[in-house]
Each structure stands twice: as structure tokens, then as C-alpha cells.
Amino acid sequence: MSLLRILSLIVLPLSIFAEKANVLIITIDDLKPTLACYGDKYAVSPNIDSLADNGTLFRSNYCQQAVCAPSRISMFTGLRPDTTGILDLHTHMRDINPNILTMPQYFKENGYLSIGYGKLMHGAKNDDKELSWSELGDDLPYNKNHPKPVLDKFQNPKAHQVFKKLNKTQKRLKTSLLQKEMKNKGAYLVSEAYDLPDDAYRDGAVAKAGIQRLNELAETKEKFFMVLGFNKPHLPFNAPKKYWDMYDPNKLPLAEHQKQDQQRPKYAYHSFGELAAYKDYQIGKAVDEKRQRHLIHAYYACVSYVDAQVGRVMDELKRLNLDKNTIVVLWGDHGWHLGDHGLWCKHSNFEQATRAPLIISAPNQKKGQVSQSPTEFIDIFPSLCKLTGLEIPEQLEGEDLSPILEDPKAKVKDYSISQYLRWANHGYTMRSGKYRLTLWMPKNYYGFMKFDENDIVEVELYDYQKDPNETTNFANNPEYAEVLRKLKKQFASYFASQYDAEKERTMPQLIKKNSRKKY
């Protein structure tokens, strides 16, 4: 056998192949696994499906908290919300952790151009522009034949009329003033379906900006760490008409289980105030079937719209021959309720809010792999370090996923942890195998504190093999006593691993002092 043949049979670690690889992270707001590659038989998502066909799809992936800022800050720092102190939409990351290290910052410090477009680090003041980014694309290349969307969202005529009326002085308007007037005039709509080009809306412009910069980088050969932050399918559900036309709303199924009951604590639910911000919806008021169908149709249309933008970027990456040396990560920052449990939006510890897509495609990796291993978004930072040959910062709380890229049957952890702080209680939820255990603790409890089982306020236990729609809380079922005992023990082990006396002494005061939301 020739030496060349022998060498061709040697399997090298992925980090060797990708040591000088570029990184492209595709961030998609509010994207649950409504994708064909995740088994959704209604979704039209050929481009994300293609990415999965060329990489590894993580089927059992979960966010740290089902709301934008905490989830994004956790992903970008590799730290859990209890460590970052970001538990709401308004607190600034560096107010609590001034020396926190972000992923774009770390890659920038290691010789990469860190470049960002679109919605990025919600939870960091000005997207942490000074420390984290070499370039931050604030001026997006919208379609020149159409007006820029109002608030980067709306193209309806009423919205433009309100904007023109309030903007006579051409000074920058306060967002709150513009929103208020749009609501008064019936222009703050939950969806739009105009026959417009993709780049008349923000996500099309984000894709265009990314493509333009990729062309420049192909010429200069500079190493890059690029993040493209797409907004859809976040509310409002605005997408060009052609994506709405891909679906028949009458064929899209309504959620099977829409009941809220007393098996669960009342704070397991919420009143979907995010949806109620839009015309014709009210806080906590049940959504009738007609509007349910409209919202579900709108969500799917937005998924297909953002899928098309992913396709444009990936096609250009390939055309420029950058795909051979670029690691691509696609993630949705959390899931979304589409009527299940009588809920809409995110903001819960249920499966539909916490489970979200994660796909990684690295040069020379095996294609079309599917992993069942529990994974979390805090795993992305250490994984990209490993894949690019960078040292993994010791403070990171996630796991390196590269063993799974080499063998999809590999397992890097036994469970995933999410959390949600609501009213007077702090809920921690563990997805372990076919079970989910949710422990509701007092509001002043954080995961870095000493755990005492006597402090548990409420318990939820779900068995997805028997009950995939979470219709029954098995916590008080005697048949599940041993399962509950084992999962509580597993949870206690997790809390023990997180305990930090210094954090327990200082962090609660920092969170309370800097939080811009009063719980």
C-alpha cells in the first residue's frame, strides 16, 4: 500500500482541519424547530435543510432561558443566566459583569475580524460594540426602490404616514413615541404580507450586507468571525407575500392541547403580553380559531422567508469558495408557543419554548449527521474554540461538541438546564432523557446558591414518551415516585456543581441593583 493511501486512511480531528477556519454564525430570532429537517412536515425550509444535510443537526438542543436577551448573552458568553446576571430584556451585561468575555471579543483578540449585522447581543448596551466587534453594520442596504421600513419592521401605509407626520423636523424620533402613535392609528399590526422584494424588509437587507462583506473578505483573505442576526420569525410576522403563498392556512394544524389547568402552578403560564402589544390582541384573552390560523400561517411564512435569506448567504459562501474553510453555526435563540397550553410567544419552561434548533457544519466533517445528545447554547463557544484551535477559556460553562461532530452517537452531557424567573418564583427545568423536571424556587433563589430541597415551592414532571404534549403533570403520581427521586437527585447534583459562595454573597445585590425590570 502506498504512503499516500496510508495517509488518506488516517482520520484527523476536526480541529486540525479547521484550525484556521472562518466562522459564520447565523442567529435566528424566535425560531422553534418548525423545519423540515427537524421533522416538521408542513415547513418549507429547503436551505436550512440543506445546511443540516451538510453538517450535524442537534435534535435535543435547549436554550438557557426562553427570552431573547438572556438566551443570547448566554450563547455569546458561554455562561448561564445566573452567571451573567441577565434575566430580563433590559439589564446591560457589563453593568453586572464589566469584565465578562464574549465570543466575538475572544475571536477578535485572537486575530479574527469580528463582524456583525442585524439583531445580535440583545442584553448588551449597543451590542457591546467597543469591546466585541471589529465592525458592526448599523446602516443596512435596504432596497432603494422602496422606503425603509418604519422601526425596521413595518411597510404598511399607515405606519409610513405616522412616521412622516411625526418626523417633520427630520430629528431622530423616540421609539416609544412612534410606537404609541402607530398603535393609536391602527398601524402597529401583528403581520404584513405585501408583494415586496426580500430586501424591503430587514432580514433581506441583513443577508445583502453579509453577502457584500463576504465578497470583500474573499478578496482580502482575512480571517473572519461573522454573525448575521435575522429577526424573523419574531413578531411582527412581516414577510413578502410569496412566502405566505407557500402555505394553505387551513391545512396547518392547530395546537392539540390548549388547556391551562390547575395541575401546574399558575406561574408556569403567562398572559402573552408580547402579542397583546399588537392591534386586535389583548393580554391573556383567548385567541379564537380564525386568529390562531392566521398567526400559525404567519409564523410559517416568516420561517420560509428567513430560510430564503440563509440560502442566499450559503449560496454566496459556496460561490466564493469560502465554504471549504468556514464553520457555519445556525441557531434559533429559543422556541415559541403557537397555541399549545393556551400560550403564544415564548417566556416559559415548557418544551415548545425551551427547545430550539442548532446545526453545525464544519469543513471536512461527516455530512447529514443527527445527534440525540442533550446540548445547550452555552456549548457553542467552547465548540468553536476547539474547532478553530483556540484555547477554551476556563470560565466557560458549556461543553465542547466536537466529539459529536466526529461521532453523532457521542454524548457530552446527561441533561440540559433552562430557567425562567416569573413573579415571586424562579423556575429551573431539566430535560433528561424522556423526562422534564421543573422545580419552582423562591424568587430570591439563584443556581449559584446552596440548594435545599425544602425550599422547593412547586414541582412539574413530564413524560414525553407517554405524553408528548405535556397534558399531565406526573409529579404527584405515585407511579413516578422513583423517577422523581432520581431526577431530583440529578438536579441537586447540578445545583451543587454551580454553588459559588462568592456569587451567593455578591450577585443577588448586583442583579437587583442593575436590573431594569422589577419582578
From TrEMBL:
PROSITE patterns in alphabetical order: SULFATASE_1 (PS00523)
Keyword field contains Nuclease: no
Domain Sulfatase N-terminal: 22-389
Gene Ontology MF term list: iduronate-2-sulfatase activity; metal ion binding
UniProt keywords, alphabetically: Calcium, Hydrolase, Metal-binding, Signal
Necessary cofactors: Ca(2+)
Record's keyword annotation contains tRNA-binding: no
CDD domains: iduronate-2-sulfatase
Coiled coil regions in record: none
InterPro entries attached to this UniProt entry: Alkaline_phosphatase_core_sf, IDS, Sulfatase_CS, Sulfatase_N
SUPFAM superfamilies: Alkaline phosphatase-like
Gene Ontology CC entries for this record: cytoplasm
Highest taxon of the lineage: Bacteria
PANTHER family per the UniProt record, alphabetical: IDURONATE 2-SULFATASE
Family: Belongs to the sulfatase family.
Name of the molecule in the record: Iduronate-2-sulfatase
Source organism per UniProt: Lentisphaera araneosa HTCC2155
